Amino acid sequence: MTTHHAAVRASYDTVAAGYADALADDLAARPVDRAMLAVFAELAGHGPVGDLGCGPGRVAAHLRELGRTDVLGVDLSPAMIAEARRRHPGPRFEVGSIDRLSFVADGELAGAIAWYSIIHTPRELVPALFAEFRRVVRPTGPLLLAFQATTPSTPATVRVERAYGHGGLSLDAYRWDPAVVTDLLADAGFRPHTTAVRQPEAPEKVPQAYLLVV
Q: Which residues form the Methyltransferase domain (predicted)?
C-alpha cells in the first residue's frame, strides 16, 4: 500500500462512525444531488452499477431506492465498509482501492459513480484513476463525478487535520476546475454529457461540481 493510500485509509477509519452519522440524511436536503443521481440511474443500462469510494453507503442505498437493484460499493476504508454493511444491507460492499479494481472485470459495470471520491487522489495520479474507471465501465455507460470546485479566492489544495470530531488526521483534499476534469476524462475515453455547478450550501465553503460523462 502506498503512503497516499495508507493516509486516506487511516483517516477515514478514524472518522467513519462520525462521518456516517453526520451525512446520513444529507441527500434529503440536496435536490441537485438527488437530481444528478436520478439522471445517472436512468441512463445506466441493465447490469450492475458501482459506487466507487462509497464511504458508509448512503449513495449506494439511494441508488437502490431509484431502482438499481445490483449496486457494488467499494471503499479503501474497512471501517467505512463496516458502517455501510451495517446501515444498508441491500448493496454489496467491498474493501478495495478504486484505482485498482482487480475484482471488477473489463466493462462489467453498466455505470459508475465517484461521489467526492477523487478529492484525495494526488493530481498526478488522476489520469491513471480515470483510465481504471474507463476499464470497468462498459462503452457508453455513464460515469458521474461530484467534487468541490476551485474558485479564484480559495486554495486548490486543503490540508485536512481534523474532521467529524476527530483530530490527528493527515491528508490533502483537492479542489478541481470542472473543465480540467472534463479534459482528463476525455483523455481516458469518456465523452461529456452534463456539467453542473451549484453554489455552496452550509456547511460547504466552495461551489460543488457534477460531471456526467459516457
A: 51-141
